[in-house]
Amino acid sequence: MRVFITGGTGLIGSTVVAELLGNGHTVLALARSDASARTAEDAGAEVVRGGLADLDVLRAGAARADGVVHLAFNHDFGSAEAITRAVAEEAAALAAIGDELTGSGRPFVVTSGTPAVPGRVSTEADAVAIEGPLAGRGHSVAAVLALASRGVRSTAVRLPRTVHNEGTGGFAGILTSIARRTGVSGYPGDGAQRWPAVHALDAAVLFRLALEHAEAGTTWHAVADEGDPVRDIAAVIGRRLGLPVASVPAETYGPLGPIFATDQPSSSAHTRQELGWVPKHPSLLEDLENIRL
Q: Which residues belong to any copy of the NAD-dependent epimerase/dehydratase domain (predicted)?
């Protein structure tokens, strides 16, 4: 099928584009900059110029496609205001695409995060968070899933806090960046809180499977590692960079501090059983050995 994809040149999106092209699909990739356009073209995709704020471009891209995969998000986590703007921009974009797809029966795959459930591992049956700095994304995804009643084969792939490739990406990547800047490989609290993770190449396979096979209104978990203690993640980062490892205040991570401090292990048992998804690539702790010095 011809697939319109947003965010197709990022760490996750580039692997999704390659996975789609490698399995007989064609790709229309949204590209905001000249650099992104060149990246998409070099990968073999057709370029649609524009960004998430260009609603008419999004509608036109969806109109030309047999299905849509949405991955784009402005990852400016420097302030609560920036996060609020990014969430609002995404909500408007998803609504515009959803309106274009209504009544078509075409697939619409969106992404969100795995939920944190106090005292246990979260599953695909758990609701997304409706509180916290990124809660607005939960409302947007819920609205997309509700399109199932309006003739859209909408589905959500929930990503863990770290989607990694070659030692970079996700929350672990943020820990690495802060460690380089501060000289300490830190973790909030006692570091016992667990973060789930997945290799980007494994996540890409799940996006394809959801696009091809998932029923309307369904939710899936792209989780390979159920949950690594954050202090273990920080320990690998510290060893690779030759830095001390220590607990640091949650405020170190700005608006994301409360999320960083939360225990949030997650399961993908249902996803593996129903869609036949089998992660095959290195775990997070293994992949962090690829951090560049």
A: 3-218
Instruction: Provide the CATH number for the domain around residue 61.
Output: 3.40.50.720
- How much is the pLDDT for 2? 98
**Phi, psi of 137, rounded to the nearest 5 degrees:** -65, -35
Shared domain for 14 and 95, answered yes or no, is yes
For residue 257, the SS3 value is helix
State the total domains in the chain: 2
Verify that 176 and 120 share a domain, yes or no.
no
8 A C-beta contact, residue 37 and residue 13: no
Query: Would residue 29 count as lying in a domain?
Result: yes
**Tokens describing residue 94:** 């998803």
> In angstroms, how far is CA 263 from the centroid of its own chain?
18
- First-to-last C-alpha distance (Å) of the chain: 41
Q: Do residues 197 and 163 touch, judged by C-beta distance below 8 A?
A: yes
Single pTM value for the model = 0.94
The string of pLDDT tens digits covering residues 257-292 is 888 999 999 999 999 999 999 999 999 999 999 998
Tokens 């996803």: give the residue: 271
**Among residues 5, 14, 4, 6, which one has the least CA distance to residue 163?**
14
H helices of 102-134, in order, are: none
State the Cα–Cα distance between residues 67 and 27, nearest whole angstrom.
10
Q: What range does the domain containing 186 cover?
A: 165-196+226-266+283-290
